[in-house]
Amino acid sequence: MKFGVIKERKNPPDRRVVFSPNGLKSVKTKFPKASFVIENSDIRVFNDSEYEREEFIVSDDISACDVLLGVKEVPISALIPNKKYFFFSHTIKKQPYNRALLNAILDKNIEFYDHEVITGNNGFRLIGFGKYAGIVGAYNGFRAWGLAYGGFQLPKAETLRDQKELELELSKISLPNMKIVLTGKGKVGGGAKEILDAMHIKEVSVPEYLEHTFDEPVYVQIDVLEYNKRKDGCILDKTDFFKKPNEYNSDFMRFAKVSDMYIAGHFFGDGAPFIFTKEDARSKEFSIKLVADISCDIDGPIASTIRSSTIADPVYGYDPNTEKEIDFKNPNAIVVMAVDNLPCELPKDASEGFGEMFLDHVIPAFFNDDKDGILERARMTKAGKLTERYSYLQGYVDGKE
After folding, report:
1. Most buried of 241, 263, 293, 373 (most Cβ within 10 A)?
2. Nearest CA among 51, 53, 49, 42 for reference residue 4
3. pLDDT tens across 173-220, in order?
4. How far apart are CA 305 and CA 299, in angstroms?
């Protein structure tokens, strides 16, 4: 089985890669029959010579490879017909801006596997960059606080080599006595928590957070049943929430009344109640001054996120009275950090972590006849058609949805 590690061609440039040189060494150790060709790249976080030092072939011709591995969407003009591809296509939710890409994949008889739908038998995702989004998102939240309210300055995450350097910079700052609420206990929330813990910010329980004042910065990490409640007052488990989200209302305002900073690291599902609304944000009791929205759902569960921001310009202000964007230094502003491609700012760590997951969960499937169904569940197209699992996209492909 010959794999090709492709050059990322999407703009703005993305320096991440599926496998680092050391990651590929681990693959070869476990699966000696796997071979790799690395496509030349002048933007990748690991340069060509680092792969060559580990005796991997680097070439501008990957046409002999069976399976091509990338991160972001491949431009239509760069797709090689009749190959197997892995990358994030951003099509499974019928995103209109990538319909032409999915059509091209079908037209070129590409067998396509989307990283986003590489799942286990339980339906949960097995690989992704969520942890690194959480790490960078939390860092950027504190950087935004320094920009908005002074007291310290942090360099952009993209100028630092790895998580250790982010943590070193954060160790140099001094925070006011503030309360920070973090939503989400998955990979994104876990990444954000790593930063909060590295900063030695005290974690407190929900009752302590809601009822007490502190003479130091503190944070609370909350899950769905702590910021949502059933409309009928019954207390059930998380499974009930995920099955019947429309039977719940947000209970986040009790946190918003006592918080200074909100780090949003949750997953937001269809039908779930908004976390805080425009009306909530206008309330005199709403105390949140800054939102680091890692989830970044536009016009969605977090009212202040009215657009995504960029690595180049990551912070803006939201005026809850006018519901418009304003300067983030305006006294009326809720400060918003809503960069939608956060892992790009930590490409080395993100690539190494992604490769470990890909080796653990995906590469074995090529050598064990896919006994766990990993490839079967992630295969979106085959023989120029959508697979049965993804046939719901046919109307989208045909331009009818």
Report:
1. 263
2. 51
3. 999 999 999 999 999 999 999 999 999 999 999 999 999 999 999 999
4. 6
